Protein 1
Amino acid sequence: MAFPAKYPSLNDTALTEEARSTLIRVIRVAFPHDSFPDGPYERTADTILKAAEESTWFRVSLTQGLLTLAHLAGGDFRQLDEDAATSVLRRIETTEFFGFIRRTTVLNLYDDPEVWDAVGYEGPSVDKGGYIDRGFNDLDWLPDPRIETYTGEPIVEIARSVPLAPPHAATHGGGQSAASTSADTSTQPGATDARQGQLQHSEATK
């Protein structure tokens, strides 16, 4: 890691107006919103610079990152067009410098009242009595839902058939099995008469 005390150019770059404007450009490219005014981007950059003033680690990361941007841009990063600037940022997206900017921007850029106005967000409602009496059901910013009545054939659900118990399955309550029940039918009167008829026929043919 390069320390400002060893490399004076880091001190020359850090926390200057040039560094601030470069940082604003970085945030604009990384978080592009045509409808956002300059104010939120500028205040987010100031928040990053303030955090860098309070932390040596962030300050060194910031100054090194800005020097790296200038090197990769072949001069002034602020002069690059959108595509070229995006390509440069993609090359440093895994660095501590860009991670520091990304984290701070996400937490601050979208918490700016000017950004809320730009996207149509009314902001917190606690100090205004909540949403119940302030258009709780006012969703005019959403498209009207499409409601259609089904006019086709009635939809009939076919019930799934319930499988029967296998023949060898025992009956509930300790009863006989299906197989033993079938065997017991041989003792019924009709079965006895049929068996006697078969015996008489066999005797006659002997």
Note: Residues 8-29+37-119 form one domain.
Protein 2
Amino acid sequence: MSPHAVPQQQDWDELLASFNVTKHGFLPAEEPLKSLPDAYYEPWEYLICNLQPLLAERTLRQSIDTLPVLSVDKLHTEPEWRRAYVILTLLTHSYVWGGDNAAEILPPPIAVPLLSVSSHLQVPPVATYAALNLWNFASSTGDFTDVDSLHSPHTFTGTRDESWFLCVSVAMEAQGARVLPSILAALAAVPARDYATITAALDQLAACIHAASALLARMRDHCDPMVFYHLIRPFLAGSKNMAAAGLPRGLYYDQGDHGAPSSWQQWRGGSNGQSSLIQLWDVVLGVTHTSDGDAKGNPHAGTASAAGKPTEDKSFHDEVREYMPGGHRRLLEYVGRCGSIRALAMQPVHGADPDHARMQAAYTNAIRALTEFRNGHLAIITSYIVVPSKKPWLGAGSGLDGGKQDDTADRELTGTGGTALLPFLKQSRDETKVCGELVKARMAEVRC
């Protein structure tokens, strides 16, 4: 389809489906599988279902080392490939961070099938947002927007805190699905200046973002900040920018004698920055970001991806599209080629044009909603990372943290995606806010 073609209303669902977007948005159409149907994969299922006791007993690494290298040939459906990815990436992070020291080498029983599964799904061989959130949830009601009905079948800690932390994002994704058709309709309406369609979509988008903000604020209901910071967060770390934690070269994916060459790779850990939904809001509203997310002077900033592509010229938001499922990434690219609502909102109005003025007001309202969402995210980060980083942990140690107080006084706080946390989030918030301010300034010029 031409990037400038305008589909008919009844074709929106078909268009979204071509990018693997469902009635639930970037979530699958049905709940993820609870187990792989072929008994051949029972060794994987045993490990993922006994993850917490194996970690507690410090026997997980030995259990993985002695696994057979299973073929992926018995994975037949996309839900099966996705479950395999969830299992293998969670086992990867558990293997790396589930000991006294980080493990630099991922052995063939995990590395070989993980690289094949990741290639099939067009995602990196690391626990991405897709593995942790999009493909790792269950609902007791079938309403994926109802966070109280959701739980994550597989977590590192087995705590309600971790399940709640993951499922808040699942509910936000489902909430966002409701406005995807209207967003596409608005973009298609830009060339014709169909202000009514665009304004209605912007109003719906603002309401959707407010609903997502309300869900984000519920993080505090069942996820304790100290539990998150000291027990959960260490397992979410990737292999990029992790020299201080014991991975100066990243993670070595050992292929053994299974054909493909082994390699050192560096990948960011899973984070909400990898959400296609949040990036879609930015693209639709014309918000652009420039930060690479890395701390100044970080020797690992700008390293090449596993595919050999240099990342130094990419913003963080562009880079993490590599972490999104292929279809979702392509939807963002498609939307980016469509008409720009921001450009239309910035155009001068000659004479009285109340429809244009209403559209501009709706645009600034949507920008305000997205700015408030990012302010809410900053508040969550303060509660869950900044404040706990300054407090000693008195609970039982686990994983990378080992029960020790973090020495954040000597280094900059980073997010689970490896970003220089507060500066990056504040810049993203400010880059959002300025879009609304520019349109407001144009509106003021017209009134004069």
Note: The chain has a mean pLDDT of 87.
